[in-house]
Amino acid sequence: MLDPASLVAALADPAASERFSVLTGDALVCVDLAGADGGASAAALRAAAARLGELPALSVGVGAAESPAARALAPALDVLLGRDDEAELGVISGTIAAAPLASLGLAQLLRASLARTIYEGLVAESLVYSTLQSGPEFRAWLAAHVRKEREPSREPAVLVVREGARLSLRLNRPEKRNAFSAAMRDALCEALRFALHDPEIGAIELSGAGAAFCSGGDLDEFGTLPDPATAHAIRSTRNAALLLSQCAARTTARVHGACVGAGIELPAYCARVVARADARFVLPELGMGLVPGAGGTVSLPRRIGRQRTAQLALTRAPLGAERALAWGLVDEIAK
Prior knowledge:
CATH topology of the largest domain: 2-enoyl-CoA Hydratase, Chain A, domain 1
Largest sheet: 6 strands, mixed
Number of strands: 12
Structural class: alpha/beta
Radius of gyration: 21 Å
């Protein structure tokens, strides 16, 4: 655990990217924000903050940023934890140790997320996701995953109902807790394109059938495409996140139960998210050697900030409805 003064001095070294690296040094930089300030100049603090954003390692600050050095460095850190959240530091460290390449990809995406347009952010996310699909962490997860063969459902993956100026879109794979499959993605894209081309649709509602809004990507489809480059081209052609962002102003998401991966990455684009009290939000992708791939590195920072997005992804712990409301991830808890 470095104090701000020690961190500024360490980052002034041209070899800092070797000392702090998921490949060659420390994969995690921990900073006690209440530690010694050191009286560094404003120029030195600006340089240190910029360098933090370039490190091939992740950084976590703990405690209140009260000194000038801590206040200058805190916005550049990947995660900020209060003293009450300090126990999460061990969980974050374990995630990074298990998936250093995916963790670095996540941090690099989030550092620049708000500076990109939604389209640019989605392209960057897809490229990182595709790169990680070729990496050792995802390959190890895929080798251990037992794929289950199931009969294709005869029901539509998304139920689409038009009532006057209102369009209802309901995820409809309740037997798989609405796991986000290729068929569901394609059906959702088709419905959203329809909404974009019909200006008379004034309100769109996104919901899920069954016990869960969406349990995340259909794991049995992971790794089934010919290659990661083709997968990127498919995501570029049929991108539900991009289409949903274009309909966002007139869309309300009503979520409940498990909201995993795509189950919160997509609703976060909507102008309004209404959650039932039983809703639980999880980003599990780092456990598979991947980053959020349904648009979450773009949508979530715009709702809760990049540091809380990183915290949610690195801890992989469920976030309850009340805390999600406090963070701004949802706008209302349904009575």
